[in-house]
Amino acid sequence: MRLTLSKKGLLLILLPLLVQLSCFVAYDRLLSKAVSLYQKQMHNTLVIGHLNWLGVLLSVSSLSANGYAVSGDKEFLDVYRSVRDDTRRELKENSALFAVSGYEKDYGHLADLAAKLHGQLDSVVAANQFGHKGGDVAVNADVKELWRDLWLTRKTILEKEQVRTPLRPKDVPDAFSSLRILTNSGIVLSIAIAIGVMLFYSQDIARRLRTMMENVSRLPAGKPLLERVEGNDEIATFDSSFHDMAKALAEAREKERAILDNAIDIICALDSGGRFTQVSKSVFAGWGREQEQVLRSTAFDVIKAEHHDTFRTALERALSTGEKIHCDVQLAGPEQTDVLWTGAWSAENQSFYCVVHDVTKEREIERMKRDFVAMISHDLRSPLMSVQVFLQLLSSDHFGEMPDQVTRRSKMSASDMARLINLINNLLDIDRLEEGQMKIFREKVEVSKLFERSCESVDSLAERACIKLAVADSTDEIEVDEGLIIQVLVNLLSNAIKFSPSNTVVSLEYRRENEQAYFAVVDQGRGIPKDQLALVFERFKQVDEKDDARKKKGSGLGLTICKRIIEAHGGTIGVESEKGAGSTFWFRIPLS
C-alpha cells in the first residue's frame, strides 16, 4: 500500500484522536460506574440511616412513656409526645424513598407497627394521667410483641437492601482510583504518542526533507547529489524527479560544454569592468592564447589600443540601456585580425555574455568589393558611356549617312550598351544602399506629382505594349525622397507592363492606412507561383529566369533596389499574387 503524505498526515492525526477517544469512552464508563456506586451508597446510607433513626425514635418514645408511667414526671410526657410526633413525620416524609426502592409493603407494615406501638403507649400514658397505674411498659406483653415485629420488619428491609445494592466498603474508592489511573495513563500515553509522532516526523519526513534541501544546495554548486531518499510518497517522488532533472541538466551541461569547447567562435563572459570571467577553449585556436592566460586579463588587453574607446562605449551603452553589443574591432598583435563582438548585459548575473567572431575574411572581401565597385564606377562605366554616346551618334547619321546594316547594328549595340550601363548603375545603387551611403532627402511632395512623373517615364513602354494605365486621384502630400520613390514606382510599373498581356489595365493605387501611405501597382499578368513569392525581392532572382532574362531583358536587381529604398524610408514592401491571376506589388511608408 502506497502511503502518501496526506495519508501519513491523516494517520498522525487519527492515532492520537483514537487514543483520546478510547480514553474518553473508558473514562465515561468508569465515571458512570463510580457515580452509580456513589448513588447506591447514598441510597443505602439513607435507608439504613432512616431505619436506625426510626429505631432511635421508637426507643426514646417507649422509654419516655415508661418513665412517665413509673415516675409520673411530666417532663417524660413532653418528651414522649414530641418524639411521637417526630416519628410520625419521619414515617410520612420517607415513605416515597422506600416506595421507590421496592420496600413499600414492608415499610407500610413497619408504619402500622409503629402506629400500634404508639397506640399502646398512648393508652399507658392516658391511664397514668387518670390515676390508673399501667405498670412498667417494658413488661407489657403487647408492647413486647410489637417491638419484636418492628425489629423483624426492620431487619427484613435491611437484608433486602443489602441484596439489592451489594456494596463493599472499598467499591467506591476503587472506582475513583480506577478513574485516577485511567487519567494518568491517558496523559502518559498522549505524551508517548506525541514523542512517537515527533520521532516519526524527524526520522521519516524531516530527515528526507533535509536530504532534499542538501541536494538543492549541491546542484548549483556542481557537487554530486546524495542518494535518492527511500519511500513511495510525494517526497520520494519529488526527490526522484529532482534527481532525474539533475541528470538531464548534467547531460545538457555536458552537451553545452562540448558545443562551447568545439565552437570556432570564442564564447566568453565579462564582468562590468570588461575582465574575463569565462572563456571557451577555442580561444587558443582563435587568438593563440591559453585559456588561463585570458582569464587573468581584460578584453582591452586583447584589443588594439585605438579601438579601446569604441569597445568601452559599446559596453557602457549595453550596461546603461540594455542595448545589444555589436562592435567591430581589431585584435592586438602584429597581424591584422578583425573580430566582431556581439552580446548582451545580464543584470541578473552581472555579466556581459559575448560571442567573438573572426571577420577578417569578410572584411577583406568587403574591401575587395569596394575596390571592385570603385573600378566599375570609374574604370568601366565611363568608357561604356562614351561608347554608348558614340553608337547613338553613329545610328543617328551624325557622321553622315551610313549603310542600313551599320545603322541597325549600331542601334542594337547602343541598346545593349544601355542595358549594361543600367546594370552597372543598379549594382552601384545596391552597394550604396547596403553600405548606408545613399542619403535620403525628404521633402513634401504631392502624390499626384509622383504618379504623373512615374507614368511619364513608362508611357511609351505602355503604349508599345497596348497597356492602359489607371491612376488613382489624390491631393495628399507626403514627405519622401521624391526621386527615389519615383524610381520605385517606375520599376514596379515597368515590370507590370512587361508581364501583362496586351489590352489590359495596370492600376496605380494610393490610400492612407493608420498614419501610413499605401501604394500599390496592380496588373493582370501571369502572376507569381506561391513558392516563389519569397524570392522576388532577392537580387538576381526572377520568376522564369531564362525566359525573363532573354525576352524581358531583366537583370533581377530592380525589385531588390526597390526594397532597399522603401526600407531606407522606414517602410515595408510586399507582393500578393497567384499564378495566372495577376499580381499586386505594394509598399507602405510612414507619413511622419
Mean pLDDT: 79
Low-confidence stretches: none
The CATH top-level class label of the largest domain: Alpha Beta
The major sheet is characterized as: 5 strands, antiparallel
Estimated radius of gyration: 62 Å
Q: What is the level-2 CATH architecture name of the largest domain?
A: 2-Layer Sandwich
Number of helices: 16
CATH superfamily of the largest domain: Histidine kinase-like ATPase, C-terminal domain
Using the coordinates shown, work out and report the CATH topology of the largest domain: Heat Shock Protein 90
Order of helices and strands: HHHHHHHEEHHHEEEHHEHEEHEEHHEE
Distance between the termini: 73 Å
Shape type: elongated
Number of domains: 4
Number of strands: 12
Instruction: Going across the biggest sheet, name each strand in turn.
Output: 2-1-5-4-3
- Kindly state the percentage of residues in helix: 55-70%
Structural class: alpha+beta
Strand residue percentage: 5-15%
Keywords summarizing the entry:
592 residues, alpha+beta, de novo design (two linked rop proteins), Beta-Lactamase, five-stranded antiparallel beta sheet, five-stranded mixed beta sheet, 16 helices
Report on the architecture of this protein.
The chain has 592 residues and is α+β, with helices and mostly antiparallel strands. It folds into four domains: 40-167, de novo design (two linked rop proteins) (Up-down Bundle), CATH 1.20.1440; 263-358, 2-Layer Sandwich (Beta-Lactamase), CATH 3.30.450.20; 363-434; 441-590, Heat Shock Protein 90 (2-Layer Sandwich), CATH 3.30.565.10. Helix content is 62%, strand content 13%. It contains 16 helices and twelve strands. The strands form three sheets. The protein has a five-stranded antiparallel β-sheet, sandwiched between helices. Strands 7-9-10-12-11 form a five-stranded mixed β-sheet. It has a two-stranded antiparallel sheet with strand order 6-8. 20% of the residues are buried.
